Amino acid sequence: MSPEFSTPLYTIRTAKEALKFSAAHLATFADGSIERLHGHNYQVEATLSGLLDAAGMVLDVGVLKKWTREICGELDERVLVALENPLLTVLEEEEQVVLRYGEKTYSLPREDCALLPIPNTTMERLAYFIACRLAERLRGEPEGGRMETLCVSVSETPGQSASWTLRLFPERE
Q1: For the CA atoms of the chain, what is the radius of gyration?
Q2: What residues contact residue 56 under an 8 Å CB cut-off, 6+ apart?
Q3: Percent of residues in the chain assigned helix, strand, coil, to nearest 5
Q4: What is the mean pLDDT of residues 66-93?
Q5: Which of 21, 31, 82, 129 could form a disulfide with 75 if both were Cys (CB 3.0 to 4.6 A apart)?
Q6: Could you tell me the CATH superfamily of domain 7-87+114-172?
């Protein structure tokens, strides 16, 4: 093996049909406006790069797929609520979640909501949220130190997606 290839990074990707969720949301825009409450059938893809283990794998792709599917399940058939959106007031009551935007008020059953620690429910922010959740698990893996980057893409319609990439161990740089 030549020296320039002595520590190559390998990449695995999972984008199976099962990595999806259907959810409603309303996003706000930079001009302060808000879109109507509507839904999408989201598709998720996860890409992980790192060094190989003794078996010749970055990570068992089945594990990455399972974790991604579990996160999708938490969002499936829910109304996605951005808790950190400065344009929305979110009141968490015992059995209801109340959203306020200007003169509009939405009252939703709490069990039908996914309360997310993000500033907006855009594809970009959903990719960020899912990537952060996956990164928590990857960093907890016994051999997680071999892993370098994680990229998550979220598509809300075919041909329209957003991705977010993070370094799993930025302190090593």
Answers
A1: 18
A2: none
A3: 25, 40, 35
A4: 97
A5: 21
A6: 6-pyruvoyl tetrahydropterin synthase/QueD (3.30.479.10)
